[in-house]
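thread: overnight batch results

M.L. [08:02]
morning all. the overnight job finished for the chain we discussed friday. pasting input first so we're all looking at the same thing
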Amino acid sequence: MRKKLFLLGGIILGLWMSQLFLASSLSDQKIDKQGELIVVHNPEKPQPINGWKTRVRLLEELVIGLNQDQTDGWFASLNDIAVDKAGHIYTLDPKDVKIRVFDAQGELIRTFGRRGQGPGELQGPGSIRIWPNGQIVIFDVLLQRFNIFDKKGNFQRSIKAERLPIGVVKLDSRGNIYQAQITREAPQSETIRLVRYDSSLNQKVIYHTQTRKIERRVLSLYSPGYYFDLSDDDYFFWIFSPQYVVHIVDPQGKIIKKIIRQYKPRPIDRREKTKLMKKWAFRLKGLPPSVKIKFPDFYPAASGLLVDDAKRIYIRTGEEEKDGRIYYDVFDFEGRYFTRFSLPPEEEVKAVKNDCLYCLIKEGESGWPLVKRYRLDWKL
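M.L. [08:03]
and the structure it wrote out:
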């Protein structure tokens, strides 16, 4: 009897200790409810989730674009990358006006796309997305329309968007359009907005707006902007770059959750300004001497947002390691900040699919654009 009581006591103590560990690991996270809106407050540092594989290593698996001898296997330029359920990689080349499709081993399968203004033709392809049914959606910036192709690259239909202002757009599988737009409504000011339209281009929701002053002969670096993405089931995720607040919008267009992370803004001091001027020297070349470069006081909280097929959220931050690698923060759909990793600044994450991370490198050591794939190796 005494042994049984001792065993029972040990089990109860073990359960109590495990609950205590779980509570302590998430003690810095707070959840508020504001009506139907859930607000998740996260601490500055990631909090591991008990029993979850939350530590991650990036294992380089594949680089596409190194073999210049391969016919039609490397790129004139690269704008975007998309990946389907089978791991096929779709690359968007605006200079060649061509979409190249590679298998999971990096072998070229097929190409499609041609320059023109007719049905299915492209003039200024800017982004590419794969819908869950396998359809390929390409937005043409110059023609202001979405071209939709089947899995093999055969043109199916277009959705015109010429009535929209110029701006970054995404189309969900229900026909709703999300756009970050800039409009000049007065000579000395401009307004930025994040807007949702229905399939008939009727404006339905304005999620955020800000008006800012335009200074003559001033080039402002790191102007505030929006980063956003869509999940496979049409949830919309967005962040306004100066603020570390991720918004989750349901398929009906309603904001259902806000995810907040404490962070210390990274100052742009004199040393940082010198470093940035060297980094951007090529872009600023030829700028008239009368134009003034204006820096903000701090780096933006965010400079990118992506969602993977498990609805994990990846935020490219304004923070970096001593060697210049950029930090990415990772949240789950519940809003928990559970891990982070870093990448070289020239590697821009464009897709995360099947626990693989796909980066676009605008110009590799060879001088040509590259696609790089890492496997996300999750550990307890």
